[in-house]
Amino acid sequence: MNVITVFPKFIYLRKILLILIGLIPNLSTAQEIINTDSHRLEEVAEGVYFATGTGDIYTMSNALIIERNDDVVIVDSHITPEAGRALLDSIRVVTEKPITTLINSHFHYDHSNGTPAFGPDIEIIGHEVTYEKLTADPENEHTFQSSLRRFDGTVNRLQTELNNATDTEERRELQGQLAYWQRHVEAQEEIVFTPPTQTLRDKMTLYRGGREIQLHYFGRAHTGGDLAIYLPDEKIVFTGDMMLGGISYMGDGYVAEWADTLQGLKNLDVELVLPGHGPGFTEVERISNVQAYYTDLTEEIRRLKNLGYSSEEAAARADLRQHAETLGVNQLGANVEAVQRMYDIWDGKIK
Ligand SMILES: [Zn+2]
């Protein structure tokens, strides 16, 4: 267990504050990084840990661990029960308290398929749409199916590369990668889609155990039921995939509504955003950058559709390069799956 500090500037200010007022005994525990066998746990506030996979096991998404006086609440459970168990083991490095509550940020496989690892008695809170998705036909959700094809493709590619490799070092490297992805593909066999046991539509607040945890639904965005998990005292929000460091996956998204939804997020008093993938960030203006992208993408695709272009043509022609500086959009074009979905929504094929 290796402990190093993060947010050095903040720590520095805190230390000065400590020296000035000469009390607050327990501050040294906050803002640390704890490396477990499978996770990097960043203590972003006292008893609140942002969990990201170290790569030893495939977790794919981030999770949040929130300690209360007598129990633990987690947000998201990773991609497989095996990855969920690794998260459970990592939680045990920082606390022995029982894990009583799991919040689903949204229904996607990589955030919810680890849920069985936490046992049958855990309370699972999610949006109504998450419940609908996980009780309908989650096995055949196109995003889940395309992930299965992608992982199979990775295994097949590595197998072919290994067959063709002659260099010993290269073979060893490929064998390691192949074993890693094969392990993940096998871990998928164990998936049991597990829906929320309790749902909300717009807002819910948990007050138990000396911690206020707000669950907000601001509208459709990355899915039809994204929740922002907000800790008002700590000024921290876990955003799942409705807000990443940059542009999110849009294959189940509502691009035309997304910017409005993010306005709700911006109205929260937040100092740290913890996304479902990638590192946390303090630059709240990133929300405005992606809002502008979704707004411009909507306008551009509607313009091209009105000119009679097919979704494929529109995706190829869309010019969003005004977002090069903020979001790295240097090339002409937009994600074809996202554009197809926008067409389907406008044509009434998707509600
Ligand atoms: Zn997602």
End-to-end distance: 49 Å
The ligands bound in this entry are: zinc ion
Oligomer type = single chain
Strand content: 15-25%
Count the strands? 14
Give the radius of gyration.
21 Å
The ordered string of helix (H) and strand (E) elements is EHEEEEEHEHEHHHEEEEEHEHHHH
User: Would you tell me the overall average pLDDT?
Assistant: 92
Which strand order does the major sheet show?
1-2-3-4-5-6-7-8-9
- pLDDT < 50 stretches: 1-29
Dominant shape: globular
Helix/strand-derived category reads: alpha/beta
Please give the count of helices.
Answer: 11
> Could you describe the largest sheet, including whether it forms a barrel?
9 strands, mixed
Helix percentage range: 25-40%
Notes on the structure:
There is one protein chain. The protein has 351 residues and is an alpha/beta fold. It has a domain at 284-351. Helices cover 40% and strands 18% of the residues. It has eleven helices and 14 strands. It has helices at 8-21, 81-94, 109-112, 128-135, 142-164, 168-187, 255-266, 285-306, 311-317, 324-327, 336-346, and strands spanning 2-5, 32-35, 39-45, 48-53, 63-67, 72-75, 99-103, 123-127, 198-200, 203-206, 213-216, 228-231, 236-240, 272-275. The strands form two sheets. Strands 1-2-3-4-5-6-7-8-9 form a nine-stranded mixed β-sheet. It has a five-stranded mixed β-sheet with strand order 10-11-12-13-14, with no helix packed on it. α5 (142-164) packs antiparallel against α6 (168-187), α7 (255-266) packs antiparallel against α8 and α9 (311-317) crosses α11. Zinc ion is lined by residues 106, 108, 222, 241, 249. Residues 148-175 form a coiled coil. It comes from OM182 bacterium MED-G28. Belongs to the metallo-beta-lactamase superfamily. Class-B beta-lactamase family. Residues 60-277 form the Metallo-beta-lactamase domain. This is Metallo-beta-lactamase domain-containing protein.
